[in-house]
Amino acid sequence: MRPAGGSTSYAPLNASVLAHKNPATVSEEVGEVGEPSHPKGNITAESTITVEPTLAAAREWLSILEQPQLASCIGEAFRAVAIEESPGLRKPGNSVGKAQAARVAFPRNGDQTVAYRLIIPIVAEGQNRSVYHDYVLVRKGRADVMLTFTRVYMPVSSRMEQQLTALTARRLRG
After folding, report:
1. Rounded mean pLDDT for each run of 10 residues along the chain, 174 residues in total
2. Full domain range(s) for residue 120
3. Percentage helix, strand, coil, to 5, in the chain?
4. Are 65 and 1 in contact, with CB atoms under 8 Å apart?
5. Nearest to 140 by CA among 168, 103, 161
6. Total domains in the fold of the chain
7. CB-based contacts of 142, cutoff 8 Å, min separation 6
8. How far from the centroid of its chain's Cα atoms is residue 1's Cα?
9. What's the CA gap between 105 and 117, in Å, rounded?
């Protein structure tokens, strides 16, 4: 995942961009908002808001996240983290399959918006499950927000994702 130059002034263009850290980051977890309880899996929605040091840095960060090859990097990284952080998935008979990852269409919020969907097949305790992770990234001025929506068996509704993204984006001052 490297362009001809191999890196930018902001960050190297490889999976390490997924580990982006900023001291001005704020995380907020939102449980099941706007939808009734689901027998086949709860919804987890999280947001992380970051204020970049300059407008140029914020633009560059989102341009990295818009690269077409990022979807496969996110899928590979997520699979590795799932296996590492869930020892039960390493037991005989359990497995984490290759993640399907793709950029998805999403309404624009703020100055830039990009969205991805990961579908991770998991076999655990003899049951097949698919875990859906949707990522929406929005930049408004120097501020950016990453919203993640996670659910087992089926994706979170696009209506819910769009409403929570619009609400969060309106809170950004840039």
Report:
1. 38 38 42 49 87 93 88 86 86 90 93 94 90 94 93 92 93 74
2. 24-171
3. 30, 35, 35
4. no
5. 168
6. 1
7. 51, 52, 53, 54, 55, 57, 58, 174
8. 18
9. 10
